[in-house]
Each structure stands twice: as C-alpha cells, then as structure tokens.
C-alpha cells in the first residue's frame, strides 16, 4: 500500500467492480474509495497540466521523446484509469450514505480518446469534461462514444442525487417551470441527445459500424444509460400504478391543483419519453442478438422465406388495437 502505481489503482477498481457485481455494495464502495484516494495522491486528475509543465521545462532533445508512441499510451492509460474512478464514483454513489468522492471541477484532464487513436498511439485532443467559462480551448480533433459516455455519466450523477435527495418532494416549482431541478435535468438530457453526431445516434446501422471497430460496449453503454436517465427522471412525475388513468397525467400528490395546469401535452411527452427509452433498450437487445445469430449461424434461406436474422426482425409486435 505504500507504493502508488496505476496498476494498483486498476486492481482496486477491478475488485470494487467484482464486489459490485456480486451485490456486495459496502465492499465495493470501500475498494473504490481506496482506488480514488490513491489516484488523488498521484494527482491523476491533473495529469495533463503537470505533464505540460514538465514538457516545457525539458530540453529540446527530450521533448521529442516525451511525444513518442509509448509515452502517448502511458498518458492515455493514466487518463482512462482516472476516468474509470470517476465513472464508478458516479454509478455507485447514492444519497448521504455513499456521497460523491470526485468533484467534476477537479477533472482537469482531457476525455478518453477513441479506440482507434489509442491503438495507433495518436496524440489527439478530446476536450475537457467541464471546460471553464471564458477559457480558450484547442479544437477537438477526436470524438468517441467513450468520451460521450463520460459526459452522460456526469448527468446521471446529477439525476441520481436529485432522486436520492427526495426528487419531486423537494421541488418548489412545477416540473415545467425552468426554475425547477426537474426541468434543468430534462433539458440537459435533451441537449446531450441533440449534440450527438449522426454516427453516434441509436440505429441498427450505427450499431454495426461500432461493432466493426470493436466499440460496441461503449456504444451500448451510452444508449443504455441515456435510456435509464430518461426513465428514472420522468418516472418522478408519472403515476406509479395508472390503472384508472384515461391518459398520461401527473401523480396524485399534495399540490395536485398545480399539476392540473400543466402545459399542453406535457404529460403525454413525458410518457412518450419513458416508453421510447424502454423501446430503445429492447432495440439494443435485438441488435446484440442479431449480431450473435449472424456470427454463429449460416445465412441460409428457411422454409418461411428469408434468413433467420430476417425472421428475427420481422416479428410483428402487438399493438393497442389488439386489446380492443
């Protein structure tokens, strides 16, 4: 424990991840805490700034060595290790019992690069997680689903804190009021979704593109978490058991009179966001299943016509008319 290394931090992160997968939340939280404190002692969250100072102080003959492919890989590995701490901190933290350990303002390193840039040891700039207002930043030369996922994790952290601290019960304003926390979080999700490049949006074609470049995990995680953000946030103002509801409406709470004056289609749009997010999760599962079938079966015609993959996606889904 006296020796601080990136490998030790990664080991504790893996131990924490394993304990978390086994639902041993307390053990996972302790292992993560050790990893985060070791990373802070190594000042990994300020690594880019420290390295830049060292490069400027180094002689000209040494500056070329510091930009070698090996150094690029080492620096990116240190960044990814710190962002792994950040991601697990946001996902494991919950309420007052497990508070956040890493402030977003302290993350002064650039976001993780794409897998291609990492494999080729390219020196790229990916931007900061939270750029300072008014500060000039270099032009971003590399974008990836992994860096977008890190940004979304920060939004999820805010949603998690909002829900765990009481959610709508702590609100002073109705959810459609720009001053409410719900409205601000919802706008962040909408802005994040609109800012995604076309190649990062959810579609079958984009799934195949990322699968070809071995970036499926980051792509699936990105859209899974985006769907979870929508579901968890919007469920705050949806009825828990809408058995007698003729249409989407707000929950039965003390200030029900205020909720009755919602803007036109507010509740309908909230319900649509939740069900569309649920649909996105189902689609991701289908894409994954489709790839698994295509890798393990021959693309041969069947008696029903077409390929097994075509049958998988041509299954008709039940509609509301079927229940009439």
TrEMBL record:
GO terms for molecular function: DNA binding; DNA-binding transcription factor activity, RNA polymerase II-specific; zinc ion binding. Residues 28-118 form the Xylanolytic transcriptional activator regulatory domain. One of its GO terms (cellular component) is nucleus. InterPro entries: TF_fung (IPR050815), XnlR_reg_dom (IPR007219). The keyword Transcription regulation applies. It is found in: Nucleus. Pfam families: Fungal_trans. GO terms for biological process: DNA-templated transcription. The keyword Transcription applies. CDD domains: fungal_TF_MHR. Keywords: Metal-binding, Nucleus, Transcription, Transcription regulation. This is Xylanolytic transcriptional activator regulatory domain-containing protein. It comes from Fusarium xylarioides.
């Amino acid at each position: 424990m006296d020796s601080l290394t990136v490998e030790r931090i990664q080991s504790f992160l893996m131990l924490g991840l394993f304990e978390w997968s086994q639902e041993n939340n307390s053990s996972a939280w302790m292992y993560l805490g050790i990893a985060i404190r070791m990373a802070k002692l190594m000042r990994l969250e300020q690594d880019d700034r420290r390295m830049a100072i060292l490069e400027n102080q180094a002689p000209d003959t040494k500056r070329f060595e510091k930009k070698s492919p090996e150094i690029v890989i080492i620096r990116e590995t240190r960044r990814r290790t710190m962002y792994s701490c950040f991601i697990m901190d946001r996902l494991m933290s919950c309420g007052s019992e497990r508070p956040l350990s890493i402030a977003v303002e302290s993350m002064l390193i650039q976001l993780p690069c794409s897998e291609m840039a990492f494999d080729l040891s390219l020196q790229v700039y990916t931007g900061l997680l939270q750029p300072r207002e008014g500060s000039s930043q270099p032009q971003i030369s590399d974008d990836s689903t992994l860096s977008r996922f890190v940004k979304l994790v920060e939004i999820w952290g805010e949603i998690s804190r909002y829900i765990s601290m009481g959610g709508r019960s702590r609100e002073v304003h109705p959810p459609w009021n720009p001053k409410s926390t719900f409205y601000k979080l919802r706008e962040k999700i909408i802005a994040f979704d609109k800012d995604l490049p076309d190649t990062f949006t959810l579609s079958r074609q984009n799934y195949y593109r990322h699968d070809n470049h071995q970036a499926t995990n980051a792509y699936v995680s990105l859209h899974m978490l985006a769907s979870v953000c929508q579901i968890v946030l919007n469920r705050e103002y949806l009825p828990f058991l809408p058995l007698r509801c003729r249409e989407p409406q707000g929950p039965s709470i003390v200030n029900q009179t205020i909720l009755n004056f919602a803007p036109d289609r507010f509740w309908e749009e909230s319900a649509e966001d939740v069900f569309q997010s649920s649909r996105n999760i189902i689609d991701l599962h289908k894409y994954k299943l489709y790839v698994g079938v295509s890798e393990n079966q021959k693309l041969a015609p069947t008696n029903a016509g077409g390929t097994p993959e075509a049958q998988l996606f041509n299954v008709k889904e039940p509609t509301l008319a079927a229940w009439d």
